[in-house]
Amino acid sequence: MLARRVLLxxxxxxxxxxxxxxxxxxxxxxxxxxxxxxxxxxxxNVGAERVESTALVGPNGNAHVYAPSPADARKVADARLVxxxxxxxxxxxxxxxxxxxTKAAIVEASRGIAPRDRVTGNDQGTADPHAWQxxxxxxxxxxxxxxxxxxADPAGRRIYETHAARYLAKLDALxxxxxxxxxxxxxxxxxxxxxxxxxxxxxxxxxIHFIAPQGVSTETEASARDVGVIIKQIRTQRIRxxxxxxxxxxxLMRQIAGETGAKIGGVLYSDALTDENGDAPTYxxxxxxxxxxxxGALLS
Length: 300
What we know:
Residues 1-25 and 214-220 have low confidence and may be disordered. The strands form 3 sheets. This protein has a 4-stranded parallel β-sheet with strand order 2-1-3-4, sandwiched between helices. Strands 8-7-9-10 form a 4-stranded parallel β-sheet. Helix 3 packs across helix 6 (135-152), helix 4 crosses helix 5 (93-100) and helix 7 (157-183) runs parallel beside helix 11 (283-299). It is built from 11 helices and 10 strands. By secondary structure, the chain is an alpha/beta fold. The chain folds into 2 domains: 10-176, Nitrogenase molybdenum iron protein domain (Rossmann fold); 184-299, Nitrogenase molybdenum iron protein domain (Rossmann fold), CATH 3.40.50. It starts with 9 loop residues before the first helix and ends with a helix. Helices cover 44% and strands 14% of the residues.
């Protein structure tokens, strides 16, 4: 568990609140550190102009294998809030927080989400941290971020509530869009292979079954037996597509596709956004891209 958890309420508001907004008091923006790029996008959408955010693991970065630097410790030390995913996603976080000596509140953005346990591979019994793959869960992240920002900066309540409401409405529309697209895919085609086990929440929410040679972390390597089982499964179940990821080595997936005849369906974005020039510079872009790739491969 994390060393500290945020207390979303009046106590934190009294601790951090100045009573004046950053613009009105001429003060600096609220400095926050965010563990990875997807979470930072949520923070930016809620915090807008009142927040200055820094992501430790940036676009196309792999948080599973990330190694914090002394510069990262300084960023955490200077922050007022540190937003993290939780659910075991940032295995390096406790060490970083301790090294930094920060007084910042640590906000677990996934708080309140019912974790899904992994039941296969080396990760049996561990929580799957990839909760943002369900848009309904993303709305919980946003609500937690809104509440934490209000607690830290009560003068910005109206701004945080307004921006959160707008973004939540966009996520509602996105959820409808995803469900409408997935509905078009016949049930017997809703099986794909992905690089690592990052889509269980998507599976539960939308009914696309993902099979992965790696566990929930890209640190784990698939055994020859795991790969053999998946190859047999592809053949017996006639799985149509294999998908790559922007945070994983593509060679294993290309090997599996070559041995089975399954086609490479494209790249899915699981744990990280792309930069501005990529296909998924925002969370909404990420979800739309993934759904488009899945539908294109499974309907063709």
